C-alpha cells in the first residue's frame, strides 16, 4: 500500500447508527452521515439525504466546488435543472454531477431519498445566476 492511501481507515456504519440530522446543507432535507468523511480524513463524504418538508423553493441555482459528486436515488424521485435541462431522477438512477455544473433541485416526492458521494468532504456551495426558468414544483397533498 502506498502512502497516498495510508490516512484512510476502515469504516462500517450499521443501519441504526448515525441517525438522521436536520443540520445539513438544506433545512428541508434530513442527512445521515455514513462515516466516510471521518474514515478518509475529509477526502470524501458519503451521506444519505431524504425529504423532510414539502418543496416550496428548492435549492436555488448553485454549483459546488468539488472534484467529484454523484447522486444515487434510492427511493422516490427528484427533479433537477442542470443548466437549461429539466431532469427527472428516479429510484435506481445515478447522476454524475460534473465539477462546477450549475443546477437546481426544485421538486421531489415525499419519500425521496438519495445517496450522495462528494469529494472533498468540505466542498463549498456557491449561489449562481439563473441560466433558465425553473418549472413549478408539485405540491404534496
Automatic annotation (TrEMBL):
CDD domains: cupin_bxe_c0505 (cd06980). It comes from the Bacteria. This is Cupin.
Amino acid at each position: 500500500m502506498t502512502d497516498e492511501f495510508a490516512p484512510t481507515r476502515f469504516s462500517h456504519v450499521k443501519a441504526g447508527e448515525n441517525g438522521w440530522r436536520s443540520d445539513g446543507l438544506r433545512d428541508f432535507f434530513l442527512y445521515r452521515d455514513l462515516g466516510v468523511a471521518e474514515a478518509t480524513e475529509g477526502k470524501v463524504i458519503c451521506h444519505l439525504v431524504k425529504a423532510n418538508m414539502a418543496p416550496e423553493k428548492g435549492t436555488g441555482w448553485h454549483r459546488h466546488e468539488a472534484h467529484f459528486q454523484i447522486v444515487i436515488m434510492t427511493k422516490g424521485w427528484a427533479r433537477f435543472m442542470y443548466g437549461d435541462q429539466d431532469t427527472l431522477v428516479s429510484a435506481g438512477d445515478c447522476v454524475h454531477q460534473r465539477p462546477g455544473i450549475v443546477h437546481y433541485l426544485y421538486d421531489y416526492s415525499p419519500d425521496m431519498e438519495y445517496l450522495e458521494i462528494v469529494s472533498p468532504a468540505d466542498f463549498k456551495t456557491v449561489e449562481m445566476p439563473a441560466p433558465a426558468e425553473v418549472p413549478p414544483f408539485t405540491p404534496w397533498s
